[in-house]
Structures are given as C-alpha cells and as structure tokens.
Amino acid sequence: MTIQRIETGPRMSQAVVHQKTIYLAGQVADHDAGPSVFTQTQQALASIDRLLAAAGSDKTRILSATIWLTDMDTFGEMNRAWEAWVAPGSTPARATVHSARLAAPEYRVEIGVIAAQA
C-alpha cells in the first residue's frame, strides 16, 4: 500500500493519503491573521481547500472535521465562517472542542479533517 505525504516537514506532514483517505494536520491561520476567530477560521478553511486539492479531493468529500477553539464564546463567529464555506448537502460529521491553548498563543481556532479522495 502506498502512502502519499504532502507538504512534509521535519515534524509532520500537512496531509497524508492512504487507501483513498486523506488525513489533514490541524490547520490554523497565518501568524498575521489577528485575533478574529472569523478571519482565522476563513484562513484555516482556505488551507484545507488547498491541501484537499493537492490530494485530489475537495470539501464535498470531507467525512469528519474536528474544530478546536480556545474560547467557546467564539463558537458563533467560527460557525459563521464555517457555514459560508461548507458545501450544502455535503456537511461532514463534526465535533467542536474547547482547548485552553493551541500551538501558539495567537491561534484561537484549529481545524482538522479526514476526507475521501475523488
């Protein structure tokens, strides 16, 4: 069985494909995104779009999503960006989890997905 790794670095790969299933690392905003969870969510979703395309898929084929928020009071702000992005009729299974901290203090939202290849 072949394993494809996309954007591989010394610590991790941004995406791994095995048996037509795509596993994405948690995606966060750019360091200069500012504190807006809406903007950070938009940037994380754009990274997801880019990585899924590189793996031969798209957001309509997402099976599962996990979203980490550092403040559950921003749930609505994140959902506003998510609902504008997600493909109607192709919504994945999803969990949203509170996390006191993410990898860097400026990150307020992180999104990981598992998707099927086209």
TrEMBL record:
InterPro entries: RidA_CS, RutC-like_sf, YjgF/YER057c/UK114, YoaB-like. SUPFAM superfamilies: YjgF-like (SSF55298). Pfam families: Ribonuc_L-PSP. Belongs to the RutC family. This is RidA family protein. It comes from Polaromonas jejuensis.
